[in-house]
């Protein structure tokens, strides 16, 4: 392997900047979860991230943009973990895929309690840019359920097409169950919702049983 040159060089600088950014994204989620978005300050974030205010402002113009970046990164990670879980079980029917998706979603949130609180609860009051991205994420959730229903229709002729607005109600309802659990029982209890959420999803997108 080629050795990096001694002293200052672009590779080292890029690594430092990436490390600082990652710490800032983790820190803003932790701070917001602990204090609430409205009470969180840049000082809280830089203290947790162990970086200077100058470093913060080199990366982000304000707290909202930092939280938005953390929210975007967190949602992408969450979506990827769900996709990975489904791909790890090829050949299963649509109901099994629904359960796998739900379990992966809940377990990923339970593994990151600060992020779960920050992105599921505090994001609602984190500014218009965050709300706009949240709407985009909800739309992507709808399309994921639409893809699962397409599979269900290929497997079962009784499955009809569900309107997107009904799938959006499904997505919003799942989010509300998550928020209720976070507030009342804590993130570690989220995986216990798997049966309820899976049953609701299957009833929404599956065939009407007699």
Protein described:
- This protein is mostly helical and about 210 residues long.
- About 75% of the residues lie in helices and about 0% in strands.
- The chain has nine helices and no strands.
- The protein has helices spanning about 10-35, 40-50, 55-60, 65-85, 95-110, 115-120, 130-155, 165-185, 195-205.
- Helix 1 (about 10-35) packs across helix 4 (about 65-85) and helix 7 packs across helix 8 (about 165-185).
- The protein is elongated and about 60 Å long.
- The relative contact order is 0.11.
- Residues about 1-5 have low confidence and may be disordered.
Name some characteristics of this structure:
mainly alpha; 9 helices
Topology:
Layout: H1 10-35, H2 42-49, H3 53-59, H4 63-87, H5 94-111, H6 113-120, H7 128-155, H8 164-184, H9 194-205
Helix pairs in contact: 1-2, 1-4, 1-6, 4-5, 4-7, 5-7, 5-9, 7-8, 8-9
